[in-house]
Write a structure and sequence with these properties.
By secondary structure, the protein is α+β, with helices and mostly antiparallel strands. It has 6 helices and 18 strands. Strands 2-1-3-6-7 form a 5-stranded parallel beta sheet. The protein has a 5-stranded antiparallel beta sheet with strand order 13-12-11-15-14. Strands 8-9-10 form a 3-stranded antiparallel beta sheet, with no helix packed on it. A hairpin with a 2-residue loop joins strand 4 and strand 5. The model has no long low-confidence stretch (mean pLDDT 86).
């Protein structure tokens, strides 16, 4: 899979290890680390990145000075143990989120999803009965009748067909928005189902043959509407 380039700008070794470990688990980034202001300037001058994690306080320098020095930066997620710094980031367009350290894994995934989806809209081409959805640098055709369900996979998604699962570049939130709602319904924060493939249901699960998928509490309304199409 084609990986995105990510730059961590951070002077705390503990914070670097924590963030790097969580990003490596997602398996979608090539990660570089700048441990001080001057090193960060060198990285930004000589390479391009898809996402930046920025600590505001870098010894005697402010990370926000980098934002002023390099006006055409990719989406930036600010990380800091001081929530008061969040106020300084609100009106900077390239900064898409603020996370308090230590970074929580679930919060991190939401922030990455927000940052990358803001930076690049859907690359998928949706037609009446099929869609071309990007996988790395290529686009693959998915006939709607072949898709059983879709599972969130960090900032990406896994599309399950009868014979296999395929990781695609789009987040589950983006797929929910672009796929036709009469065919596909969100039943959980992590799942979208093809209505025509549902073989059964109860108050807490949807069944697609032998596969059991949970129903999220906040998606109960979707389930009631879905039942009309089954």
């Amino acid at each position: 899979m084609f990986k995105k380039k990510c730059l961590i700008i951070e002077d705390s070794e503990i914070a670097i290890v924590n963030l790097n470990m969580q990003l490596e688990k997602l398996s979608i980034f090539d990660i570089s680390v700048a441990r001080n202001y001057n090193q960060a300037r060198s990285f930004l001058s000589n390479d391009k990145y898809d996402l930046i994690f920025l600590d505001i306080k870098l010894h005697d320098n402010s990370g926000l000075d980098l934002v002023n020095e390099f006006p055409k930066l990719p989406p930036i997620i600010v990380t800091s143990s001081n929530v008061e710094f969040a106020i300084d980031t609100y009106e900077i367009n390239s900064i898409v989120d603020f996370i308090k350290k230590p970074v929580n894994e679930e919060r991190l995934i939401k922030s990455i999803d927000k940052a990358l989806n803001r930076h690049q809209t859907s690359n998928s081409m949706i037609e009446k009965n099929y869609a071309f959805i990007k996988i790395g640098r290529q686009a693959m055709k998915f006939d709607f009748e072949d898709i059983d369900f879709i599972n969130a996979f960090g900032i990406y998604s896994k599309i399950y067909t009868e014979n296999k699962s395929t990781v695609v570049n789009e987040s589950i939130a983006t797929l929910e928005e672009v796929l036709p709602s009469k065919i596909f319904r969100r039943i959980h924060k992590s799942y979208i189902v093809n209505v025509s493939k549902v073989t059964g249901y109860d108050h807490k699960s949807i069944f697609i043959n032998d596969v059991v998928l949970p129903i999220g509490f906040s998606y109960k309304k979707n389930i009631n509407e879905l039942i009309q199409f089954i």
